[in-house]
Specification:
Two copies of one chain form a homodimer. By secondary structure, the first copy, chain A, is an alpha/beta fold. The first copy, chain A, has helices at 45-50, 60-65, 69-75, 78-82, 94-99, 126-136, 154-178, 195-208, 224-234, 252-260, 270-276, 308-312, 315-323, 327-353, 357-368; strands at 2-8, 15-21, 24-28, 30-32, 56-59, 88-91, 102-106, 111-114, 121-124, 140-142, 184-189, 212-215, 244-246, 265-267, 279-282, 285-288. In chain A, the strands form four sheets. Chain A has an eight-stranded parallel β-sheet. A three-stranded antiparallel β-sheet of chain A has the order 1-2-3. In chain A, strand 10 (140-142), helix 7 (154-178) and strand 11 (184-189) form a beta-alpha-beta unit. Chains A and B meet through helix 3, helix 13 and helix 14 of A and helix 3, helix 13 and helix 14 of B.
Chain lengths: 372, 372
């Protein structure tokens, strides 16, 4: 993996980068659609490519439980399994082990947990989490970390963060010993809302020298101001020449705040989950297709959007599909929202390259925050 | 609408035809995917066109209740509403009024019923059913009929059939008086399993001179032998130069039996419903993707199928998607099953043109009935 900062905005920390991965290039800033179970909910791989998806996210915890790592070893990895030939990133599953599974014991060695699917017992060490991700075969894999909930005391956050750093060292060593071809390992900065902890964690991880760094522990219930502060307490302590990934973020406005502060990569389930709930992102803000006024509205979902949905279908048709319980409603809403996020990231990138990111952000938010 | 029989198989009643409709040509025999609520479940219009769908089915009862005929009048019909520029056929909704709605009263004037959605009261006369379909704007519209359940006594079947003939006359007259541009009206032959009633009904409808004729009242629980007998009791009494549509049929083997006996058009929810239940049609019979043996089967769903699903995805991936509750499973299964039915109809047509339909049918069934 190589990463090159191609342009820096003169007025803020925003950058445009080129990430070269085993399965192709990724131009940053980039939004990564979430395909937890090796499928982006309701989407087909051909569609994802057609709207400009450069890299997908999948989840090691889910894929470890089902279909299991043995299958990935047999078929030759997630790209072959899904027939997706562009880059993939897997989250280690740390977040899911702590949130979805029934935990039995957490020690410095690792976590004993029960599957949320069938109650079976499993034990993840940092090394095991790396082995699982090597078997799955993504281009970018993540350290096994503990994502603190919100709110959490500074003492608890410190203790958790130091365990995450310890685990990161174990992950780093195990990854180096196995030296997997074409799989880059990212460290994850924790520390909750405490700037000193964020700095301490970032510095400890940078000392371990990862190919890239993530900012974790955000989008867990904190305020937008706290999230921005966490980014500001972290990004300056990360190397300029390495990619930065803000995990689980986010809505369009949060993505832009983070880009302004030097973040390159994003993932979030919101565009896909909101879509399935009938909420569409548009240049004039979110639109709830369930509202009665769209039943007779023959305009496109977003008049300023060039996605396949906006080019073909009307709000009235989407509204009818949603009210009728048709699966096509979920598909078209998802395709639109993902297109919107990918276009937003691409537009942010163009703005950085042209040195007008701040103006771009202001113009976008003025319209987006005006509401439907 | 014009219909031309292009070829007749020398060894049976099978024919290949060309149906010219307001929105394009349909080459028969043809399978029509079912889009009850102006959407073929899980499918996008672009996908339907890409697998060779020539004509879609929609349902007047459902569309009358939601989104309502006023919307179709505003937007200019179902083609504009769905953005589907190929032909559409609407069923009159008779079947649904009698099966889905709560009926209050049936008289020779029409049916009073309550909506299955909200309990609201409605009254359909034959003329009203035609008005609704004219508003929806399909290329082919159907007479309002009573579809008898199975089993039914000959007396009841006769009484019901005679009411259907009476209603057909009213539909025919109302349709002629409104003279809608580009909308052909088909009569529907009823008569249950009674050959004399089938003949009587067919002759009465032919005397009314419809652009096309349907065989209704099949696929309601009768045996395959009874269904074939109903076709044989009807088709010979229909004009050679008019299209014949067997309503609600069917599985691949039934479609071929009907083609052999001179039927040109088919619709059935089975390919789409079965798909959503994990059942895939293949050249070696039906395959249940939920079966454990497919979890590690990296072959295509059907090795003899050239559809977009079989070209790209494995049984193992489809199996994983289905077990994981991913909507993409429903999509891909549906796309495959519809492709299978469309290919089967196209292959049957080719066989008729080449005068080898009987051999084609035997070869297909030998493999299809061999089971997975």
């Amino acid at each position: 993996m190589t990463f090159e900062v191609e342009a820096r905005d003169p007025a803020c920390g925003a950058r445009a980068g080129l990430l070269r991965l085993a399965h192709g290039e990724v131009r940053t800033p980039i939004f990564m659609p979430v395909g937890t179970q090796a499928s982006v909910k309701t989407m087909d791989q051909g569609e994802l490519a057609s709207i400009g998806t450069q890299i997908l996210l999948a989840n090691a915890y889910h894929l470890y439980l089902r279909p299991g790592t043995e299958l990935f070893e047999t078929v030759g990895g997630i790209h072959q399994f899904m027939t997706w030939d562009r880059p993939v990133l897997t989250d280690s599953g740390g977040f899911q082990v702590f949130s979805l599974a029934q935990m039995n014991k957490v020690t410095r060695e690792g976590v004993e947990f029960r599957s949320h699917l069938d109650g079976s017992r499993h034990f993840f060490t940092p090394a095991r989490a790396i082995d699982v991700q090597i078997a799955i075969g993504a281009d970018i894999i993540m350290c096994f970390d503990e994502c603190t909930s919100y709110p959490v005391s500074e003492e608890q956050a410190a203790e958790s963060m130091r365990m995450t750093v310890d685990w990161a060292g174990q992950c780093r060593a195990h990854w180096a010993s196995r030296a997997p071809a074409g799989q880059a390992l990212f460290g994850i900065v924790q520390g909750s809302v405490y700037p000193e902890l964020r700095r301490e964690c970032a510095e400890a991880l940078v000392a371990l020298d990862f190919p890239g760094y993530a900012i974790g522990g955000v989008s867990v219930g904190e305020s937008k101001a706290e999230m921005v502060a966490a980014i500001e307490a972290t990004a300056p302590h990360l190397p300029e020449d390495k990619p930065r990934y803000l995990m689980g973020v986010g809505p369009p406005e949060d993505l832009l705040e983070a880009v302004e502060r030097g973040v390159d990569m994003f993932d979030c389930i919101m565009p896909t989950r909101d879509a399935r709930n009938g909420s569409l992102f548009t240049s004039q803000g979110k639109l709830n297709i369930k509202a009665g006024r769209y039943l007779r509205d023959f305009g496109p979902p977003d008049p300023n959007c060039g996605c396949p949905v906006c080019r073909r279908y009307s709000r009235a048709y989407l509204s009818h599909l949603y009210r009728s319980g048709e699966i096509l409603a979920l598909r078209l809403n998802t395709l639109h929202n993902l297109s919107f996020m990918l276009s937003l990231a691409a537009a942010a990138r163009d703005a950085v390259i042209q040195g007008r990111f701040i103006q771009f952000k202001r113009t976008f938010l003025q319209s987006y925050m005006s509401g439907q």
